[in-house]
Amino acid sequence: MIRRAQPNDAHALGRLYNQLVESAFTKVLPERLEELQHDPTHYLLVGEYEGAVIASALLIFCKDAMFGFQPFAVVENIIVDEVKRGAGIGKQLIRAIEQLCMGQDCSKIMLLSSTHRTQAHAFFERAGFKGDSKRGFVKYRRDLMATT
After folding, report:
1. Beta strands 72-80 and 42-49: pairing type?
2. Tens of pLDDT, residues 45-80
3. Could you tell me which of 88, 100, 101 has the C-alpha nearest to residue 127?
4. Strand intervals (E) in the chain
5. What residue segments make up the domains of the chain, in order of their start?
6. Does domain 2-147 have CATH number 3.40.630.30?
7. If we measure between CA atoms, which residue out of 118, 101, 123 comes closest to residue 110?
8. Full-prediction pTM beyond 0.85?
């Protein structure tokens, strides 16, 4: 089952995010999940299996000026629990994201993935994402002070 995250999902999301990135700064707050639960442009989705949260993705609808009122979407922090990968929950999560994007008439869905996550890249390509049509760039907060 795919649904919006709720405040009581904070611990499970923290566990998933720790599989995604190794960072002492990862901090999932129930108050933030409460906020996101009611935000019309941000959808923090979770995939549940047998009552446990085993997958997540953050979907953001972005206003654009290029195509009238047609937005585009950004997907961040896509993760499926290591022990549940290959069971189809990732496909369900992507399908739910695509349905929400079609409902908003999005012009495109964009996502970034760390260069070392080659299994994830293969999954995204099987889901129809193109890894060779654009090039992504990232500047992290820790790098902001270095350039000013």
Report:
1. unpaired
2. 999 999 999 999 999 999 999 999 999 999 999 999
3. 88
4. 2-4, 42-49, 52-62, 72-80, 109-111
5. 2-147
6. yes
7. 101
8. yes
